[in-house]
Amino acid sequence: MNGPGILVSWFPACPPVMPAEAGIQDLDYTIHALSPLTYTVLLAFYPAKMAEKFDALLFSINNSYNNIKRMSAQEKAKMMNSTQKNSYAAIFLDRDGTIIEDRGDLKHISQVVFFDETVSSLQRLSEFFRLFIVTNQSGVAKGVLSLEDVKKVNEYIMSYLADYGITIVETYVCPHARSDNCACIKPKPFFMKKAAREHNIDLLNSYVIGDHPHDVDLAKGVRARGIYVLTGHGMKHRDELTDNTSIARGIGEATELIIKDINERSAQERKREMIR
Ligand SMILES: [Mg+2]
Ligand SMILES: [Zn+2]
């Protein structure tokens, strides 16, 4: 039985988000990263579901364990290397005031106005990064928007960008009001952590672009880098920023800053390799 023990510790540590916000479907993923203690707690909440999942997990662990036992040391090293290399840096984009004009609660796609530089900037960024949108839509909680409205607008934005070859991996929406004290409202890093788990995102090498101090704080919370843009509400909240925040006039300049930053980071990386 030491097989499963070893393997469980191979999975990246991730705090399970349970139970209300994540929903039972997230168990599929989460169970792979559970500590025995958490497992016991979840078992108390969802006995039938957990028993069924655990059987499946044991089966797959035994299979992988047998496969790994047969691997040579070289193959094992290669496997560990490839799991590290397969993580991606990402850009988490705010929606309103960052990639489109902030015109309040958007009920219809006819209200969507892209900034002139959005398409070219996202094309450039997608050469290096996976792109996500993270947006607070408290209009839903206030009853002025339906979730369906938000979904339609988001789908339009994603398909418009797709026509220019730009893939938005996911658009994450918090539909709550701040007073709801939910888990997902920015600057809480709920969706960034979700992206990290589900899309293998390396948050330390990722960036957030947004026109609200929440967007910058979102980045800080997971040690990613935040770029504050002065479009949208940008000018209004500028004074709330701490001194060392990178500020850009808009998405175009934010893109320039990020490309410059990754070039500097890789130059430093090369220097370190030479010293070694
Ligand atoms: Mg905004
Ligand atoms: Zn929320």
Key features of this structure:
alpha/beta; Rossmann fold; 12 helices; disordered N terminus; binds zinc ion; 2 domains; 276 residues; globular; 6-stranded parallel β-sheet; binds magnesium ion; 6 strands
Summarize the structure.
The chain is built from 12 helices and 6 strands.
How would you characterize the overall build of this protein?
- Strands 3-2-1-4-5-6 form a six-stranded parallel beta sheet, with helices on both faces.
- 49% of the residues lie in helices and 11% in strands.
- The two termini are 40 Å apart.
- It has helices at residues 2-10, 27-30, 36-45, 47-70, 73-85, 118-125, 139-142, 147-162, 190-199, 213-221, 234-237, 251-275; strands spanning 90-93, 130-136, 168-174, 207-210, 225-229, 246-248.
- The protein has 276 residues and is of the alpha/beta class.
- It is globular.
- It binds magnesium ion and zinc ion.
- Zinc ion (ZN) is lined by residues 174, 176, 182, 184-185.
Number of domains: 2
Strand order of the largest sheet: 3-2-1-4-5-6
CATH topology of the largest domain: Rossmann fold
The termini sit apart by 40 Å
Write the layout of secondary structure elements.
Layout: H1 2-10, H2 27-30, H3 36-45, H4 47-70, H5 73-85, E1 90-93, H6 118-125, E2 130-136, H7 139-142, H8 147-162, E3 168-174, H9 190-199, E4 207-210, H10 213-221, E5 225-229, H11 234-237, E6 246-248, H12 251-275
Parallel strand pairs: 1-2, 1-4, 2-3, 4-5, 5-6
Bound molecules: magnesium ion (MG) and zinc ion (ZN).
